[in-house]
Structure formats: structure tokens, C-alpha cells
Amino acid sequence: MTVRKGRWADVILVVLFTAVLTGLTGCAEFQVRIDPAPIPTGDAATVLATLPVKGRAPLTGYDREQFGQSWRDIDRNGCDQRNDVLARDLAEVEYRPGTDSCVVLAGMFADPYSGRTIPFRRGRDTSDDVQIDHVVALADAWRTGAQQLDVDVRERFANDPLNLMATQGSVNQQKGDGDAATWLPPARGFRCDYVARQVAVKAKYRLWVTDAERDAIAGVLSGCPGQELPPDSGIAGA
After folding, report:
1. Going by C-beta distance under 8 Å and a sequence separation of 6 or more, which residues neighbour residue 155?
2. Lowest-pLDDT range, 3-7, 30-34, 98-102?
3. Residue ranges of the GmrSD restriction endonucleases C-terminal domain (predicted)?
4. Sorting pLDDT into bands at 50, 70 and 90, what band is 235?
5. pLDDT tens-place string over residues 4-22
6. Mean pLDDT, the chain, as a whole number?
7. 104-110 and 130-134 beta bridge pairing
8. By C-alpha distance, which of 107, 131, 133, 104 is closest to 119?
9. Do residues 230 and 47 touch, judged by C-beta distance below 8 A?
10. N or C: which end of the chain has fewer CB within 10 A?
């Protein structure tokens, strides 16, 4: 086929555009707007079966800042998410005066991850005794689809109460960025609730699971047939 001289510019532009688009879709900087979805109905095992199964994407480009502001007041109640989770998960809560019952000073914490009960008191040397865990770790999320989300959606993910649980600091450090295939809570009685929450978070934010992760979650859920998903936090738009 003979291409007329006047058509060569159009052909070159199409080739260049295709090459650029291909390059963008292959890198972490190419992001799409995928809003969180309502958590599906059904038990955790049923929803697990609907999650895509893929290998881990590279951690290339990952940084905590990719998930926006830490402990943002995502639900706009005047309190940051760390204090909201402490207030939700602790008992006998004491607040700092003058903060409209927002800043948690002290409380008793029954840690579901370890089964231990420990006191919490805010302070330079004591605040880290109780930490806030991302149930689906940020690095794990990055490797299973979050790098394709825009930063606003990732910020919602990192601050969504559905994905946040208070736990003993040493236990949180042991978990690191592990998924269910590499880490489960020491308290076996909480494992069904824990993996059900992971399934809910991944379904809401349209993330995938690896083969090993799916098998590990399915193995836990086989011991608690009909395990329900936790209720959604209601966090959708920001």
C-alpha cells in the first residue's frame, strides 16, 4: 500500500501516541480513578472467591506519601483517625480537656490480636504501646493494585476505619507489611474476624489477592463457616 506524502505526519503521530500510552500503562505513575465499592453481601468465603487472583506487582515507586496524609480526619468529625480508632477500640477512655472529647489520653486496651489487656497512656515513651494497624498493609496494597489508584483514593484507603485496628505495638511491628500468607494474629480466636476484614477491605478497594494469600485466608475461614464480613465504615468520598 502506498501512503501519500500528506499522510505520513498522521501515521507518525499515531505511532508516537501508542508508544507513549503503552509506556504509561506499564508504570506506577499511570493512575486511574476507581472509587471504593460497596462491600458485597455474603459471607467472607463467598466474597473471597470473587476477588481477582494475581501475582504481586513490584514495590517500585512505593512510599508512605503515596497514601496521602497520615491520620486525616476522613470522616470530618473534628478528630484525626488515630484518635478515632483509639476511642473506638479502648475502654475506660479519658480525653484531654478542651479537645471536645477528641484527644485520647488514657484507657484500657484489650488487644484482639494478642489476647492481652494493657493500659494505654499518651506520652513520649508510652504512646507507641498501642499502635494502629492497617489490616491490609499499605505496602501489600501497593503490590496488589493500589499503585493504579489515584492518591485521593489511596488516602481514603489508608485512613478508612474499616482498615484500621488498634493493637499492641510489639505485635504491629511483628506483622510489618505481611499479608495473610506470611502473618496472622497470635490469638487464634481472632483470626477469622481478621481475615474477614482483609477480604472486606480488598473487595471495597478493588484489590487482588495472591494465590498464597487466598489459600491462607480460605484455610482460616474453613474453620469458621459463614463468617460474616465486618460492617462497612461508610467512607466513600472525601
Report:
1. 67, 68, 69, 72, 74, 238
2. 3-7
3. 80-219
4. confident
5. 555 544 544 444 444 433 4
6. 88
7. unpaired
8. 107
9. no
10. N
Share of the chain above pLDDT 70, in %: 84
- Whole-angstrom distance, CA of residue 11 vs CA of residue 14: 5
Number of Cβ atoms within 10 Å of the Cβ of 1: 2
Cα distances from 55 to residues 144, 150, 209, in angstroms, run 8, 21, 8
Cα 54 to Cα 20: distance, rounded to the nearest angstrom: 25
Give me the count of residues in the chain: 238
Q: Provide the CA 32 distance to its chain's centre, in angstroms.
A: 18
State the DSSP H helix or E strand holding residue 105, giving kind and residue range, or none if neither.
strand 104-110
Enter the pTM of the model: 0.84
Q: Which three cell numbers stand for residue 96?
A: 484531654
Measured CA to CA, the distance from residue 187 to residue 190 in angstroms comes to 6
Task: For residue range 62-80, list pLDDT tens digits in order.
Answer: 999 999 999 999 888 999 9
Location of C-alpha cell 492497617? 134
Pick the closest to residue 117 from 108, 105, 128 (CA basis): 108
First-last CA distance in the chain: 54
